[in-house]
Amino acid sequence: MEVLGRFWARVTATVPDLPPAALLGTAAVAALVVLSPALWRPARNVVTIAHEGAHGLVALAAGRRLSGIRLHSDTSGLTVSAGRPTGLGMVLTCAAGYTGPALFGLGAAALLAAGHAVGLLWVLLLLLALLLVQIRNWYGLWSVLVTGAVVFAATWWFPPIGQAVFAAVATWFLLLAAPRAVLELQRARRRRGARDSDADQLARLTPFPALFWVGVFLVVDVGALVLGATFLFDATTN
């Protein structure tokens, strides 16, 4: 019981807010990863994890039965769920993928702004553990385990300020990477290489065209970026 108490105290401990200069620095690091072709390629696996994880969470919340998740080395992924092939639950499940990373980032920004950088890292670990049991291929297993190991190392060995910096970089990365993923989706659609994309599936499920859904994804992701940045910078001035 004492061990659990110490663990809970560690998880819920607050850390000082990063000063504005440090917050800008973490945003710059995340932007570099998102904008650099060499860094974006491996980092995009993290976006795929968040994308497919969002599909899975919403599918379960909508009452669908999750059959499994696959992550591939080309940074694509597949979430399979059973249930009605049409209806609101299916629409929400399809819409979750390209909005999920940004909404995860927005939630992370809210936790970080409240001083819960350590708690944020443990929440990420919990979500990765829940995802792990649904993975159905070796590359996906490796990808989630490596990501989890990096987060665990930061949680367990970094000092509080290091944890805050790591959490801030991860938060900015999710917020900045989500809009880029949507822009990549539209480029692939223009080349007619993504006919089974989430947007095209939504076009078949609803009266609205695929381009409308691409626009919805982008509006949600940019809105989450603006709101998340507001949370983080407001915390430094209070």
List keywords for this structure.
two-stranded antiparallel ribbon; 238 residues; mainly alpha
Mean pLDDT: 93
The unreliable regions are none
Radius of gyration based on Cα positions? 18 Å
* Strand line-up across the major sheet: 1-2
**How many strands in all?**
2
- Estimate what percentage of residues fall within beta strands: 5-15%
Order of helices and strands: HHHEEHHHHHH
What is the number of helical segments per DSSP (H or I, 4+ residues)? 9
Shape: globular
Counting helices, strands and paired strands, the structural category is mainly alpha
The largest pleated sheet is described as: 2 strands, antiparallel
* Oligomer category: single chain
Portion of residues in helices?
A: over 70%
Please report the distance between the alpha carbons of the first and last residues. Answer: 36 Å
Architecture overview:
- The structure is a single chain.
- The protein has helices at residues 2-12, 20-35, 37-61, 88-113, 117-132, 138-157, 160-190, 198-205, 210-237, and strands spanning 65-71, 77-82.
- With 238 residues, it is mostly helical.
- Strands 1-2 form a two-stranded antiparallel ribbon.
- Helix 3 (37-61) crosses helix 4 (88-113), helix 4 (88-113) runs antiparallel to helix 7 (160-190) and helix 4 (88-113) runs parallel beside helix 9.
- The N and C termini lie far apart (36 Å).
